[in-house]
Write a structure and sequence with these properties.
The chain contains 26 helices and 31 strands. By secondary structure, it is of the alpha+beta class. The N and C termini lie close together (12 Å). The model has no long low-confidence stretch (mean pLDDT 97). The chain binds ligand BES and zinc ion.
Length: 883
C-alpha cells in the first residue's frame, strides 16, 4: 500500500536501528518572545556508527548559525531540507552549537513552542510529544536518545514573570534591560519528547509533599489569574496520586519540585513532561459551580495518569513510537487502579468497558484497525488511539489477573529496576514480568501484534448422571486490514457457577483435589477451543463468565434470559450484574431492530432487575444509575453490518423509553427520596447519589412530558453544574417549551467561562435529533467559538461527528458535509485535530449502501483537496484503502 499525496513515508517496526549518534548533554538558552524566539543549543554528540553521517531532525526552524567544536560551518558544509539538517563531514565526538529563530505566535499546530491565549495576555509553552522538539531546535528527536538537559530561559520580566522548565531550579537573576533569567537542571536523562518550558504571567498554589524516601518536594500548580481559584481539587488529587503510587507500587517522586500548568490551548488532554506536566484546563480546573462531578473524577484520573508516567514512561521510556502502548497502556492501567482503589472499582470498570466497546471495538471493526503495537505508521500522532490506550490497558490488566496482585507487583518492580534510565520494548516488559514469576509470557505478545476483537463463544452442558458441568470455550478473530489469518490468543476467563439459590459453587476441575476448590477461578483458553469439566455439580448451574470483564473480547453465550436476569440481581461480582443486564438489553435491542415487538417476558425480566436495583438501598446508587443507562447506539451496533443509524436510534429509544415508562412510579419515589443532597459536596458517596437522582430525572422526562416541571425546577434551583446541566439536558431532550429559554439563560450565566460554554456547545451538538445539524452550523459562528481552539472544536463539530450518530448520519448527507467542511478548514490550522475528526468517517463500509456512498464521497472530496497535512492524508488514505 502506498501513501496518498501529502502523507509521510511509512515507517516499519522491523526497520528499527539503534541510533548511529547519541547526545549525552544538552544546553539550551532561550530568548523568549511571542513573535520571535531565539534558541541556542549546545549538544555533546557521540558517534556509535563511524559510517553514519550526522542527520538531525529540524522542522519549521530558521537556522541562524551552526558551529562544530567552536568553528562556524560554511553553507557548503551542511544541508537543511524541510525536515532534516545534515552535516556530511562530521565525525564524533563533537560539540554542535546551533542558533535558530522560531515564531511561537504563528504556531497554530500547537506542536513545539507556541502561544496560549492572546499576544498581549497569553503565555508561552511547549508540547513536544511525539515529534515536536524538532520544531524547537535541530536534534536527534527520537525516544531512544536520552540526554541530560540544562536550560536557561531569558525574557522580559513584566511580560513573562514566571519561567519554568524541567528539573530542579539552578539559579535566576536580572539581565539589566528589564529582562530576567532562570536556569533549570534535570538530573534524569530523558528523551526530547519530555522536554518542556513555560513562560508568562501565571498565578500559583503550592504545597509541600514529603516522599516515603524523605524527599521534600514543592508541588506547584500554575494557572492564569481567573483560573487559579479552581486548582485546589487538582492539588488534592496530586497528593493522593503521589501517596498511592508509593503504597501500591513502591514508586516515589524524584525531583525537588513538581510543576503543573493549565492551558486552554492544547490538542490533547495533558502531557507528562518531566517535572513539568502541562494540562488542558478542562482536566485540571474543577469546582462544583463550574465543573461537573464527572469533571472532578476526570481531573483525578488525568492528574494521576500524568503523574504515574513519571515512572511508567519517563524513568523507563519507549525505545521507539511503535512501543507507545508500553507507557500508555501501562499508565492507563495504573490510573484505572488508582481510581478503583480510591472510589468505586465496579463503577470504574463499567465506565472503562463502555469506553472500550464504543471506541475500541468500533475502531477494530473498520479500516483504521491496528495492533496495540502497530508494525507500521505514517503519522505517529494518529496512533494515540483507543486501541493503544484502552486495549493496551486491557492486556496489562489480563497479565495482572494471570500473575495475581503480588506476582504483578514483583514483575513491575523488576521491570523498573532493569530498565530505569533506559528505553524499553514490549518484549522487555513481558520478560521482566515473566522472569519475576518464573513463567514464560511470550505467548502474550500475540495480543500486542494482532488487531481485531476476538469473539469468545461459551456453551455449557450439565450431565446429571456424571454430576458434572462441561463448559466449552471457543475463540475466533475476524480478519483485519493486512492480517487475514489470526492466531489463538491466551484468554483469561474468570468464572463462577451459581446454583438455583444464587450460591456460588466450589469449582473443581476433573482430576483436581477436592480441597483446592475455589468459588471463583480463572480459566485460560490458549487454543482455538477447549472444554473444561467441573466435577460434583448436582444441578444445572448458571455460569457467570468473564467476571470483571477479564478479557477484551466479544462474549457470545447461550445463557437463557431467566439465568441472565438472576445474575443481574444476585451475581456477587458487581460488574457482572451490570454485564448481565447489558446482555438482556442487547437481546431486546436485536428484536426491536428486526422490527418485532420485544419479547414481553424478557422485557419484564429486565425491567424487574433494574427496578430492584432502584429499590434496594444496599445497591450502590451509582451502580443503580448504570443499570438504568443502556448502552449507547455505537456499542449496540457492534458487530452489525449495513447499519441504518436511524433504525438503531429508534430501536434503542423504544427500549429506553419502555424501561422508563415501566418504572415510572419507582423512579418518582427514588428521585424524591434522593432530594436532599449537599449541593456542593463532591465526595464519592454524594456524587453517586447525585448520579442516580439525575439518571432518574432523565428517565422520567423520557417517559412522560408531564415530568417537565421536575426538570424546570431543578434547573432553576441548581447550585452546582452537574445538576444544572442535567436539568438542561432533560429539557432539551424532551423539547420542552422552556428549553430554549434555559439554553439562553445558561449561556448568559456562564458567559466568559470557556470550559462551561464547551459543555453548552456539546449538549446541543449531541442532541439525538437530526436538526442538531442546523443547530451546530449556527453555533459555529457563535462569538465564543474559535476554530483555532481544540477544546471548542472537540465540543462542537467534534461532539457532533463522534457522539451524535443519529444526526451525523442524516440520510440527506448534510451531517457528513458539515463535518467534512469543518475538517478541511481545520487542517490548515491544527492538523492533529482535523485528523481526529476525520476518524468519524472511518467505519463507512459498515453502513447501509446509501450512507456508505455519501460517506465515501466526502472522504474522496477531502482526499482530493490540495496541500493536505500528513496527519489528515494518513487517516483519509487508510480509510479509503482498498477502494
Ligand atoms: N502522553 C500523553 C499526551 C499526548 C498524547 C502527547 C498524544 C502527544 C500526543 C498523555 O500521557 C496522555 O495519555 N494523555 C491523555 C489523557 C490520559 C488520561 C489518557 C490525553 O491527552 O488524552
Ligand atoms: Zn499517557
Amino acid at each position: 500500500m502506498s501513501e496518498p499525496a501529502g502523507a509521510k513515508p511509512t515507517r516499519f517496526l522491523r526497520d528499527y536501528r539503534a541510533p548511529a549518534w547519541r547526545i549525552d548533554d544538552v544546553e539550551l538558552v532561550f530568548d523568549l518572545d511571542a513573535a520571535a524566539t531565539i534558541v541556542q543549543a549546545r549538544l555533546s554528540l557521540r558517534q556509535d556508527d563511524a559510517a553514519a553521517p550526522l542527520e538531525l531532525d529540524a522542522e519549521a526552524l530558521e537556522l541562524l548559525e551552526l558551529r562544530i567544536d567552536g568553528r562556524v560551518l560554511g553553507a557548503d558544509e551542511f544541508s537543511l531540507a524541510a525536515d532534516r539538517l545534515v552535516v556530511p563531514g562530521a565525525r564524533g565526538p563533537l560539540v554542535l552549537e546551533s542558533r535558530v529563530r522560531i515564531a511561537p505566535e504563528r504556531n497554530t499546530a500547537l506542536q513545539g513552542l507556541y502561544l496560549s491565549g492572546t499576544r498581549e495576555q497569553g503565555f508561552l509553552l511547549t508540547q513536544c510529544e511525539a515529534e515536536g522538539f524538532r520544531r524547537i531546535t535541530p536534534f536527534l528527536d527520537r525516544s531512544d536518545v536520552l540526554a541530560r538537559y540544562r536550560v536557561t530561559l531569558r525574557a522580559d520580566r513584566a511580560r513573562y514573570p514566571v519561567l519554568l522548565a524541567n528539573g530542579n531550579a539552578d539559579g535566576a537573576g536580572e539581565l539589566g534591560d528589564g529582562r530576567h533569567w532562570a536556569r533549570f537542571v534535570d538530573p534524569h536523562p530523558k528523551p526530547s519528547y519530555l522536554f518542556a518550558l513555560v513562560a508568562g504571567r501565571l498565578e500559583s498554589i503550592e504545597r509541600t509533599f514529603v516522599t516515603a524516601e524523605g524527599r521534600r518536594v514543592r508541588l506547584v500548580i500554575h494557572a492564569e489569574a481567573d483560573a487559579i481559584g479552581r486548582c485546589g481539587w487538582a492539588m488534592q488529587c496530586l497528593e493522593q496520586a503521589m501517596r498511592w503510587d508509593e503504597e501500591r507500587f513502591g514508586r516515589c517522586y524524584d525531583l525537588d519540585a513538581f510543576h503543573v500548568v493549565a492551558t486552554h490551548d492544547f490538542t490533547m488532554g495533558a502531557m507528562e513532561n518531566k517535572g513539568l506536566n502541562i494540562f488542558n484546563a478542562k482536566y485540571l480546573l474543577a469546582d462544583p459551580a463550574s465543573a461537573t462531578d464527572d469533571d472532578h473524577r476526570h481531573v483525578l484520573a488525568v492528574v494521576g495518569h500524568e503523574y504515574f508516567h513519571n515512572w511508567s514512561g519517563n524513568r523507563v521510556t519507549c525505545r521507539d513510537w511503535f512501543q507507545l502502548c508500553l507507557k500508555e497502556g501501562l499508565t492507563v492501567y495504573r490510573e484505572q487502579e488508582f481510581e478503583s482503589d480510591l472510589a468505586s472499582r465496579t463503577l470504574r470498570r463499567i465506565e472503562d468497558v463502555r469506553l472500550l466497546w464504543r471506541a475500541q471495538f468500533s475502531e477494530d471493526a473498520g479500516p483504521l484497525a491496528h495492533p496495540v503495537r502497530p508494525d507500521r505508521y505514517s503519522e505517529i500522532n494518529n496512533f494515540y488511539t483507543a486501541t493503544v490506550y484502552e486495549k493496551g490497558a486491557e492486556i496489562v490488566r489480563m497479565l495482572g489477573v494471570v500473575l495475581g496482585r503480588d506476582g504483578f507487583r514483583r514483575g513491575l518492580d523488576l521491570y523498573f529496576a532493569r530498565h530505569d534510565g533506559h528505553a524499553a520494548t514490549i518484549e522487555d516488559f513481558l520478560a521482566a514480568l515473566g522472569d519475576a514469576n518464573g513463567v514464560d509470557l511470550s505467548p502474550w505478545l500475540a495480543w500486542y501484534e494482532q488487531a481485531g476483537t476476538p469473539e469468545l463463544r461459551a456453551s455449557g452442558r450439565h450431565d446429571a448422571r456424571r454430576r458434572c458441568y462441561e463448559l466449552t470455550l471457543e475463540q475466533h478473530t475476524a480478519p483485519t486490514p493486512g492480517q487475514p489469518h489470526k492466531r489463538a490468543l491466551p484468554i483469561p476467563v474468570a468464572i463462577a457457577l451459581f446454583d438455583a439459590a444464587g450460591r456460588a459453587l466450589p469449582l473443581r476441575l476433573d482430576g483436581e483435589d477436592a480441597d483446592t476448590a475455589a468459588h471463583e477461578r480463572v480459566l485460560l483458553l490458549d487454543r482455538d477451543a477447549a472444554t473444561f469439566r467441573f466435577a460434583d455439580i448436582d444441578e444445572a448451574p448458571t455460569p457467570s463468565l468473564l467476571r470483571g470483564f477479564s478479557a477484551p473480547v466479544r462474549l457470545v453465550q447461550d445463557t437463557p434470559p431467566p439465568a441472565l436476569a438472576a445474575l443481574a440481581r444476585h451475581d456477587s461480582d458487581g460488574f457482572n450484574r451490570w454485564f448481565a443486564g447489558d446482555a438482556l438489553v442487547r437481546r431486546l435491542f436485536a428484536q426491536a431492530l428486526a422490527g418485532s415487538e420485544p419479547d414481553a417476558a424478557l422485557f419484564a425480566a429486565w425491567t424487574a432487575c433494574v427496578g430492584s436495583a432502584l429499590d434496594d438501598p444496599g445497591v450502590d446508587p451509582a451502580l443503580a444509575a448504570e443499570m438504568l443507562t443502556i448502552a449507547d447506539a455505537t456499542s449496540l451496533a457492534d458487530g452489525l453490518a449495513d447499519i441504518d443509524p436511524e433504525a438503531v436510534h429508534q430501536a434503542r429509544a423504544r427500549i429506553e423509553t419502555g424501561l422508563a415508562v415501566a418504572l415510572a412510579s419507582k423512579l418518582v419515589r427514588r428521585h424524591a427520596a434522593l432530594g436532599d443532597l449537599d449541593d456542593l459536596a463532591v465526595d464519592p458517596a454524594t456524587q453517586a447519589r447525585r448520579r442516580l437522582r439525575n439518571a432518574c430525572l432523565a428517565a422520567l422526562c423520557r417517559a412522560d412530558a408531564a415530568h417537565a416541571p421536575l426538570a424546570r425546577a431543578q434547573y432553576a434551583r441548581a447550585r452546582n453544574l452537574t445538576d444544572r446541566l442535567a436539568a438542561l439536558g432533560a429539557l432539551l431532550g424532551m423539547r420542552d417549551t422552556e428549553a430554549d429559554a434555559a439554553l439562553a439563560d445558561f449561556a448568559e450565566r456562564h458567559a466568559g467561562d470557556a470550559l462551561v460554554l464547551d459543555k453548552w456547545f456539546s449538549l446541543q451538538a449531541t442532541e439525538a435529533d437530526p436538526r442538531a445539524c442546523e443547530r451546530v452550523a449556527a453555533l459555529l459562528v457563535h462569538p465564543a467559538f474559535r476554530w483555532s481552539n481544540p477544546n471548542n472544536v472537540y465540543a462542537l463539530p467534534g461532539a457532533f461527528a463522534l457522539r451524535n450518530p443519529r444526526a451525523f448520519h442524516r440520510v440527506d448527507g448534510d451531517g457528513y458535509r458539515l463535518v467534512a467542511d469543518a475538517i478541511l478548514r481545520l487542517d490548515a490550522l491544527t492538523p492533529q485535530v482535523a485528523a481526529r475528526l476525520a476518524t468519524a468517517f472511518g467505519a463507512w463500509r459498515r453502513y447501509e449502501p446509501l450512507r456508505r456512498a455519501l460517506m465515501r464521497r466526502e472522504l474522496e472530496r477531502m482526499l482530493g483537496r490540495e496541500r493536505l497535512s500528513p496527519d489528515l492524508a494518513d487517516i483519509l488514505g487508510r480509510s479509503l484503502a482498498g477502494t
